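Schema walk-through. Below, the input block comes first and the output block second. Nothing else is stored per chain. Lengths vary across the set, and this one has 193 residues.
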Amino acid sequence: MNWEECYKSGNTPWDKAAPAPELASSLAEGLLQGNVLVPGCGLGHDVRAIANAGAMEVLGIDLAPSAVHEAKAHGTPKNTSFLQGDFFKLPERFKGHFDWIWEHTCFCAIPPADRPKYVQAARDALRPRGTLLALFFLNPDMEDPEQGPPFGVSPGDLDRYFSGTFELERQWLPRATYPGREGRELVRLLRRI
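--- output ---
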C-alpha cells in the first residue's frame, strides 16, 4: 500500500476526522500520561487528544509525508510533535524514551509477516516497564483475511506475537467504538517485560 498516495488523493477511509472513541474513556481513566508515542498517527487526531488530556510529551509518527504535513496544519499543542518516518526505524534518540504507546491503526495496517517487527519496535521505544495500550481490530470486513489492509488478528495471535516481550495486564471490549465495529475490536494493556 502506498500510504502517501492515499493521503494525496484523499482515499483515507480509516480517518474519521476525530480521535478514536475508546481513547476518551482511556484518557478519563488516567491512562497515557508522561511521554507517549503514537505510531501510524495519520492526521494526528489521537495525538492532539492525548496531549490535550495532559500528557507531558506526545510524538506522532507516520510514513506518509502528506499525513504529517496535514497533522501539523490541524494544530500542534505545545507538548506535541510529528515526525515523518518509519516506526520500525525509530531514531536512536527515541529508543527507550516513552512511558506509553497508543496503538490504534498501525498494527492492522501492516502485513502480518511484519508484526514481529512491530513488537520489537514497540519494545525498543518504551522505557523498561513501559506500557502499550492497544485497540486491536480483530476482524475487518474482508472476504480474504490475507488481503488488506486492514489485516485482522485473533486474540490467540496477539498472545503469540507479544508473549515473552510484553505481559498482558488486562483486556476489555471497547467502551465506545465506531458504528459497525461493535464486538470487532479488543483493547489490551500490555507491559514491557
